[in-house]
């Protein structure tokens, strides 16, 4: 009986090494998350969502952006937090509404229920969007090991809910339910800047039912927010957003620090957004994932407001891309983007921004190869989904088959 080939041995070794590293880093990150909570229960953004929900119930929703009332609620729950430029509630009203069911609970219980929901959102996003094969579980461990994900979990940021909505949109499009796919994008109301190009990309790519579904969902939530806030609440919200736009740390991971001039930055960001939307249009026949990927990557470059935890959307774009069965070398490119995001505290955002621009360039090359006359140009995405139905995949191990089944801040 012949043993595994050198190539198979290399694949087995790579799998073992990758799985070991991912699991060890994930375990370490989960430990640091618990350690951070034990050192200060209130050192997270959920504290502000919880306080805003309490204000909405007791003082009315037009008052949730009143900084003096926010301070009173923070004092009432004994958070020890003082309102500051990075410590205040400025999220859209639906974030506070989402925290409403947790208000009757003790704060500590509410935080861990919220955290459990975020973990469920991460697992569900992985289930819907991660590539299949023996590496599938490794992708989940790697997600927990990635700094943007664990940082968002520690803070209680709703970015994972948005990621789940976009992943759900993708899965529903794949399942032939475009209108429901659009409704799934209603979660963009929690953090619109994370995927603001996706509805437009759906429209330009001819997925009009999905687009109108998103318009209805976001329209209902936007209208309900306006009615709940009233003129005074809307004015306060606008004032908080204008202040946040003036805080330099909110632009640290965008193009603004690299370019200098804010006006020039905005012009370039508009051009990048148009570039991404053009790619979504050109790639519209290759599959639903090919429409969402440039919208997500371009959105990360075009947004005027970005934090480390928001990069979970870039991870989602990476998963969707790997589902398309791309050339093997592109896995290294995706890994490079992951490493660039992981190392932002050490080397800053420049490597990641360069990688995002590089991703749009690679997508542009793919778009140039598209034959618009052939609607069946690329079947790889559908073939991949068919393979997922046979999810009991195996890899050879030594010749035998084995089943592989810093602070609280504004959002």
Write structural notes for this entry.
The chain is an all-alpha fold and 411 residues long. It has 19 helices and two strands. Helix 9 (178-184) packs parallel to helix 11 (208-245) and helix 13 (262-282) packs parallel to helix 18 (350-368). The termini are far apart.
Tags for this entry?
2 strands; 411 residues; disordered C terminus; 19 helices; two-stranded antiparallel ribbon
SSE topology sketch:
Layout lengths: L5 H34 L6 H14 L7 H10 L16 H7 L7 H23 L6 H10 L1 H9 L3 H16 L3 H7 L13 H7 L3 H38 L10 H4 L2 H21 L5 H15 L9 H11 L6 H14 L1 H4 L2 H19 L11 H9 L5 E4 L2 E4 L8
Antiparallel strand pairs: 1-2
Please trace the helix and strand order, writing H or E for each element.
HHHHHHHHHHHHHHHHHHHEE
Largest sheet, strands/sense/barrel: 2 strands, antiparallel
Tell me the strand order in the biggest sheet.
1-2
Number of domains: 1
Helix/strand structural class:
mainly alpha
Helix content: 55-70%
Question: Mean pLDDT, nearest integer?
Answer: 88
The low-pLDDT segments are 374-378, 388-411
The total of beta strands comes to 2
Q: How would you describe the shape?
A: globular
Q: Roughly what fraction of the amino acids lie in strands?
A: under 5%
Termini separation comes to 59 Å
Number of helices: 19
Report Rg.
Answer: 22 Å
Quick summary:
The chain contains 19 helices and two strands. The chain has 411 residues and is an all-alpha fold.
């Amino acid at each position: 009986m012949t043993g595994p080939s050198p190539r198979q041995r290399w694949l087995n070794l790579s799998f073992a090494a990758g799985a070991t590293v991912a699991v060890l880093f994930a375990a370490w990150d989960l430990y640091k998350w618990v350690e951070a909570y034990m050192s200060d229960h209130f050192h997270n953004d959920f504290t502000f969502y919880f306080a805003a929900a309490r204000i909405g119930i007791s003082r009315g929703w037009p008052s949730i952006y009143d900084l003096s009332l926010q301070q009173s609620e923070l004092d009432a729950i004994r958070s020890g937090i003082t309102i500051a430029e990075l410590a205040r509630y400025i999220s859209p009203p639906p974030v506070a509404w989402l925290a409403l069911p947790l208000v009757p609970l003790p704060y500590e219980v509410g935080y861990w229920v919220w955290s459990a929901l975020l973990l469920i959102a991460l697992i569900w996003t992985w289930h819907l969007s991660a590539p299949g094969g023996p590496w599938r579980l490794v992708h989940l461990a790697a997600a927990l090991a990635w700094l943007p994900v664990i940082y968002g979990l520690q803070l209680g940021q709703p970015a994972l809910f948005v990621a789940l909505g976009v992943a759900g949109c993708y899965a529903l499009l794949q399942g032939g339910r475009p209108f429901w796919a659009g409704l799934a994008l209603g979660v963009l109301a929690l953090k619109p800047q994370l995927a603001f190009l996706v509805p437009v990309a759906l429209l330009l790519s001819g997925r009009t039912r999905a687009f109108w579904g998103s318009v209805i969902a976001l329209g209902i939530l936007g209208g309900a927010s306006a009615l709940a806030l009233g003129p005074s609440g809307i004015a306060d919200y606008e004032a908080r957003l204008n202040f946040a736009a003036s805080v330099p740390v909110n632009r640290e991971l965008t193009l603004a620090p690299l370019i200098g001039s804010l006006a020039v930055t905005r012009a370039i960001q508009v051009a990048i957004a148009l570039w991404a939307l053009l790619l979504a249009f050109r790639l519209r026949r290759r599959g639903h994932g090919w429409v969402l990927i440039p919208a997500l990557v371009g959105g990360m470059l075009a947004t005027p407001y970005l934090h480390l935890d928001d990069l979970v959307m870039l991870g989602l774009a990476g998963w969707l891309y790997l589902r398309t069965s791309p050339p093997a070398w592109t896995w290294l490119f995706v890994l490079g983007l992951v490493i660039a995001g992981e190392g932002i505290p050490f080397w800053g955002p420049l490597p990641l921004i360069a990688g995002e621009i590089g991703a749009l360039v690679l997508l542009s090359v793919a778009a140039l190869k598209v034959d618009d006359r052939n609607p069946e140009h690329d079947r790889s995405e559908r073939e991949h989904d068919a393979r997922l139905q046979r999810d009991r995949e195996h890899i050879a191990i030594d010749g035998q088959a084995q089943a592989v089944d810093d602070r609280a801040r504004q959002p």
